[in-house]
Amino acid sequence: MVKQSKVQLMLTVLPVLSAGLYLVGAINRESYLLEFGVDESLFVQSIDRVLLQGFSSLMSFGLMPFIYGLFIALLLVGAVILAVFLSVFPVVHRIHGAVQRRLLSATDWVRKVGRGALPPAPTLVKLADKSEVLYGYILLLVGIASFLVAAVILSSNLGKKQSQSDKKLWAEGKHRSALVVIDDEAAIAAFHITCGSSHCAFWTGNEARVVRHDQIKRLNVKPAMEKREAK
Fold first, then answer.
1. How much is the pLDDT for 228?
2. In sequence order, what are the residues at sequence separation of 6 or more whose Cβ sits closer than 8 angstroms to the Cβ of residue 86?
3. Domain limits, the chain
4. In degrees rounded to 5, what are phi and psi of residue 29?
5. Which of the residues 3, 102, 103, 229 has an alpha carbon 20 to 30 A from that of 209?
6. How far apart are CA 127 and CA 13, in angstroms?
7. Rounded Cα gap, residues 51 and 7, in angstroms
């Protein structure tokens, strides 16, 4: 029985966790590329890469979001423990019984208003009996949705800030720089944003250039200026 409950817990938690990490990773990458003006559809990543980026994004949110998340988790655990503790008191049973009686009286009132036109509603009676379970599921779904929305918003902001930081560091010579020759053009210094299966994207300081692999005649990536001077 215990083993079955653990399996059920894993089957419930893993899909939510995977979906959350995938959303965070995908939104983070999309906002990062959009800040450069690059269409992310040309640079599709595999699912495992997106999940890895989602996990690294969560680790990069900073101390304060981590503290907030931990505080929320502690509040949820405390609420569950409090609910279990209070459930043993007779007053809680009386309150629950009063709620059930109100629901049942509402059903009787609807029947009277309909003058017998409405058939008995056993579903509503069962709903009243299982109201606590229903409320628990609703709160759980709302909590999961709230977490996913908050994680997506944080991930989007993080991707945008990361791209802005990369632009600034590259302009100051504190980030890696690429010397690239495209077709028959002169070599240009640019920040190497990313590469996909068919295209690569570069930031020249004024605009982003997305070129096909066959257009790149030469590509040399150099470390940041400070690292070269240190050597």
1. 47
2. 92
3. 2-162, 172-230
4. -70, -40
5. 229
6. 26
7. 22
